[in-house]
Design goal:
five-stranded mixed β-sheet, alpha/beta, binds fe (iii) ion, globular, tRNA N(6)-L-threonylcarbamoyladenine synthase activity, single chain, metal-binding, Nucleotidyltransferase, domain 5, six-stranded mixed β-sheet, binds adenosine-5'-triphosphate, cytoplasm, tRNA N6-adenosine threonylcarbamoyltransferase, binds magnesium ion, 2 domains
Length: about 350
C-alpha cells in the first residue's frame, strides 16, 4: 500500500510517500518570503503553497518511484494551522482522492509531530519508536504541550502553555537581538560557544503542568534596554553568552515541567517532538536528565522535528490500518484539538 501525505499548515509545503509503513520520500519546500517581514504572513503563505504544491507532490512521487495510480490513500493536515494555508493542502488532497477514487485521511498536525517517532525510512528500516505509554513534550512554533500517549491514536494533553509557545519565545528573543526570522535555530547556533549561566532572566512559574512564556520576552526586552543604555555594542559583544543564557532559561522551564509530569504519572519513557526539539541545548539537557532519572529518552531525527509530510504520512498510515477515513465534506480546522 502507498500513502501520499500533504502538509501545508504553516510555511512549509511538504509531500511524502509511505509504502507499507516505510517512508520513501519526504519533500519540503520552505517559504523564504516571510523572512523580510520577520514572521509568517498568512496570505503570502497560502499563495506560496498554491505555487509549490504541484511541484512538491510530483517530486515526492518521483523520488518514491510511485505513479499516482498506485496510491492507496491520500492523507492531509486538517489542523491546527493557518486557515488559508490548510485550505490549499486540504483542497488538493480532496481533489486527488476524488479523482483517483481512493480513501481520504485527515491528520492532526500535533498528533503527527508526536508520531514522527515511529517513522521508519531507508536509513532506519526497523525503527520502532517508544513503547506505550510515554510522555511527549511537544515544542513548536505554535504549541508547547505535555502529552500522555497511550497508543498511536490515543493522546491526551496533560499540560500546555497558557500564552506563547516556546518556539515563539525563541523567535521573539532572536528578533530582539536583531536576528532574522525564524531565529530559534540561530540562537541555538550562537549558544554553542556561549556561557549559559552568564545572565539570569526572571521567569514566571505556572501551577501544575502548564507553561507560560510571555513574561520571558518582556524580561529579555528590559534586560537588553538596560544593558545597551550605557554600552551600545552590548549585544554584538555578548551575543553568544546572551543566546546561551536565553536558551538555558527556556530549556530549564521546559524540563522542570517535564520532570513533574514524569513524577506525577510514574511513566519512565519520554520523548520530545516539534520544531524546538531540534534545539541542541534541549536535546543534550534531556539526555542528561534522562540518565540521572533512569528514563528511556527518545529524540527525533533532525529532519522530522520541524514541519514535514513524513510525519503526516506516518499518522495517516496508523489511521489507514484502522480504516479511519473522511468524506469530501471535510474542511480544515485552524484550532483543531488533539
Ligand atoms: P505548530 O507545529 O505548533 O503548528 P509550526 O509548525 O510553525 O508550529 P514547527 O515547524 O514544528 O512549528 O517548529 C518551528 C519552530 O521551531 C520555530 O519557532 C523555530 O524557531 C523553532 N526551531 C527550529 N529549530 C530550532 C532550534 N534548533 N532551536 C530552537 N528553536 C528551533
Ligand atoms: Mg515553519
Ligand atoms: Fe509544526
Amino acid at each position: 500500500m502507498n500513502v501520499l501525505a500533504i502538509e501545508s499548515s504553516c510555511d512549509e509545503t511538504s509531500a511524502a510517500v509511505l509504502t507499507d509503513g516505510q517512508i520513501r520520500s519526504n519533500i519540503i519546500a520552505t517559504q523564504l518570503i516571510h523572512e523580510q517581514y520577520g514572521g509568517v504572513v498568512p496570505e503570502l503563505a497560502s499563495r506560496a503553497h498554491q505555487q509549490h504544491i504541484v511541484r512538491v507532490v510530483d517530486q515526492a512521487l518521483a523520488a518514491a518511484k510511485i505513479a499516482k495510480t498506485d496510491l492507496s490513500a491520500v492523507a492531509f493536515t486538517r489542523g491546527p494551522g493557518l486557515l488559508g494555508a490548510l485550505l490549499v493542502g486540504a483542497s488538493f488532497a480532496k481533489a486527488l482522492a476524488l479523482g483517483l477514487n481512493i480513501p481520504l485521511i485527515e491528520v492532526n498536525h500535533m498528533q503527527a509531530h508526536v508520531l514522527a517517532h515511529f517513522i521508519a525510512d531507508a536509513e532506519n528500516p526497523n525503527a520502532k519508536g517508544p513503547g506505550f505509554p510515554f510522555i511527549c513534550l511537544t515544542v513548536s512554533g505554535g504549541h508547547t504541550q505535555l502529552v500522555r500517549v497511550d497508543a498511536p491514536l490515543a493522546m491526551h494533553v496533560i499540560g500546555q502553555t497558557q500564552d506563547d509557545a516556546v518556539g515563539e519565545a525563541f523567535d521573539k528573543s532572536a528578533k530582539l537581538l536583531g536576528l532574522p526570522y525564524p531565529g530559534g535555530p540561530l540562537i541555538d547556533r550562537y549558544a554553542k560557544t556561549g556561557n549559559p549561566l552568564a545572565f539570569k532572566f526572571p521567569t514566571t512559574e505556572m501551577p501544575g503542568l502548564d507553561f507560560s512564556f510571555s513574561g520571558i520576552k518582556t524580561a529579555i526586552m528590559y534586560f537588553l534596554r538596560d544593558r545597551t543604555k550605557h554600552n551600545p555594542t552590548f549585544v554584538a559583544d555578548n551575543l553568544a553568552d546572551v543566546c546561551a543564557s536565553i536558551q538555558h532559561t527556556l530549556v530549564q522551564m521546559l524540563l522542570t515541567k517535564l520532570k513533574r509530569a514524569m513524577q506525577e504519572t510514574g511513566i519512565k519513557q519520554v520523548a520530545i517532538a516539534g520544531g524546538v526539539s531540534a534545539n541542541s541545548g534541549l536535546r543534550n539537557a534531556l539526555d542528561q536528565l534522562g540518565q540521572e532519572q533512569g528514563w528511556d529518552v527518545f529524540i527525533p531525527k533532525f529532519e522530522y522535528c520541524t514541519d514535514n509530510a513524513a510525519m503526516i504520512a506516518m499518522a495517516g498510515y496508523f489511521k489507514y490500518q484502522q480504516g479511519d477515513f473522511v468524506g469530501q465534506d471535510v474542511s480544515p480546522l485552524p484550532r483543531m484539538a488533539m
